[in-house]
Amino acid sequence: MASPHRKPRWRRRADARPDEILGAALAEFTERGFEATRVEDVARRAGLSKAGVYLYFASKDDLLRALIEREVAPVARGVAALAEAGKADPLGAIRAIVAALSQATSDPARFAVPRVVLSVAGRFPEIGAYYREHVVEHGLGALAMLHRAGVEQGVFRDVDSRIAARALVGPVMLHAAWLHVLGGDPGKMSPAARAEAHLDLVLKGLLQ
Amino acid sequence: MASPHRKPRWRRRADARPDEILGAALAEFTERGFEATRVEDVARRAGLSKAGVYLYFASKDDLLRALIEREVAPVARGVAALAEAGKADPLGAIRAIVAALSQATSDPARFAVPRVVLSVAGRFPEIGAYYREHVVEHGLGALAMLHRAGVEQGVFRDVDSRIAARALVGPVMLHAAWLHVLGGDPGKMSPAARAEAHLDLVLKGLLQ
DNA sequence: ACCGTAAGTTACCGGCGGGTCAGTTAACTC
DNA sequence: GAGTTAACTGACCCGCCGGTAACTTACGGT
């Protein structure tokens, strides 16, 4: 006999679906790139059918936009919080931020979004602009403010704040791109040690 | 009458074709991205038919590989030359290299190849690896050698040479990515001035 | 128990684009 | 010139994938 309590072929879970689909999309986009992943791949990984995805997102492009927006929001909040908290001790805050950034960008999963943005920005300039405004500009702006605060307290030299911000972040990002995009060998140095060595150099300078 | 000396509908130019096709491919890939450009777009821009392209390149992927290889070669030679020439005056050489890099990466055309590599490296890991070995590793290696030379001459502090190389190049590349990939506003500061300010910071340090 | 509806599914369509093929024509050789 | 070869083209093929339409099923309300 067929049990009257057989488990349903699928469940109605309208609340959870969008997040699950976006999660699957991030994973697939990271592994194969946006253009090469089929909507059906995303659907399968999220545990529903392709048409199911189209119940929540109007198009593949829309899926990408929604993904970036979702991922950007928490980063933007985190940046603002860190910057605000560090005004009293700019040097300490900068140390903490660079260390945290070095740690975060060492994790392929946490570098996934920048990776995707980098690869699709050519085809979707709005996405590039969105990411720049909400993450890059915001983050560099926060560091620049910390630098200004440090100048006023007499700890930092009075150089261009944007240059200072880039000098702090640039090498970390270069390393991450080299590692995750170009497939570089991580080597034996830990993210923390790398951050330390980098900070020492930028703070004290390269000259003898 | 139909002139017997009418100009031919096309010319046989087997020697020039490959280069022209690669040039067209670079332009199209830069404008639209690799995935979004059709082989026919490349063909049209190169002035022949789509089937003509397939006389010289086995596939679209092959076209991409050939392009990267062609573009990488001169850069690799240039790097080697600069590094060799600068051993006597490491500080001067580093100044020159950073200034030249800042200048070069400000030009969208000269940043086109890195841009394309960045965007396709996910789908073609061999291309990422190739670029890393022949350009990034090579370039950073040359800078690291200059740093070692400077340490021995007593001009530079004895820090990790790879860290030093990244600190010199990272901020410049970050700025280029911000400018050309994310669509940042160039602003009024000239590439030369930016290089100067950056060098001043990294050489003398951020601390008061 | 039985609706009504929203959440799913399966099956399909259409066109786009990578790649090929059969024929054409430029240009070199003798 | 006639013959040969290799460069080049136009027209075509076909598989893939974004998107949709028509149908089913879970499930809350009465």
List the SSEs and their pairings.
The structure is a homodimer of 208-residue chains.
Chain A: H1 17-32, H2 39-46, H3 50-56, H4 60-85, H5 90-106, H6 112-120, H7 125-152, H8 161-181, H9 191-204
Chain A binds a DNA duplex (30 and 30 nucleotides) through residues 8-14, 17, 38-40, 48-52, 54-55, 59-60.
Task: Give a written overview of the molecule.
Two copies of one chain form a homodimer. Chain A is an all-alpha fold. Chain A folds into two domains: 14-57, Homeodomain-like (Arc Repressor Mutant, subunit A); 67-204, Tetracycline Repressor, domain 2 (Orthogonal Bundle). Chain A contains nine helices and no strands. The first copy, chain A, has helices spanning 17-32, 39-46, 50-56, 60-85, 90-106, 112-120, 125-152, 161-181, 191-204. In chain A, helix 1 (17-32) crosses helix 4. Chain A is elongated. The termini of chain A are far apart. The mean pLDDT of chain A is 95. Chains A and B meet through helix 6, helix 7, helix 8 and helix 9 of A and helix 6, helix 7, helix 8 and helix 9 of B. Chain A binds a DNA duplex (30 and 30 nucleotides) through residues 8-14, 17, 38-40, 48-52, 54-55, 59-60.
Q: Which CATH architecture of the largest domain in chain A would you pick?
A: Orthogonal Bundle
Distance N terminus to C terminus of chain A?
Answer: 86 Å
Sheet-strand content of chain A, in percent, reads under 5%
- Give the CA-based shape of chain A: elongated
Major sheet details of chain A: none
CATH topology of the largest domain in chain A: Tetracycline Repressor, domain 2
Please compute the radius of gyration of chain A using only Cα atoms.
Answer: 21 Å
Low-confidence runs of at least 5 consecutive residues of chain A = none
Could you estimate the helical fraction of the residues of chain A in percent?
over 70%
- Under CATH, the homologous superfamily of the largest domain in chain A reads Tetracycline Repressor, domain 2
Order of helices and strands of chain A: HHHHHHHHH
Oligomer description: homodimer
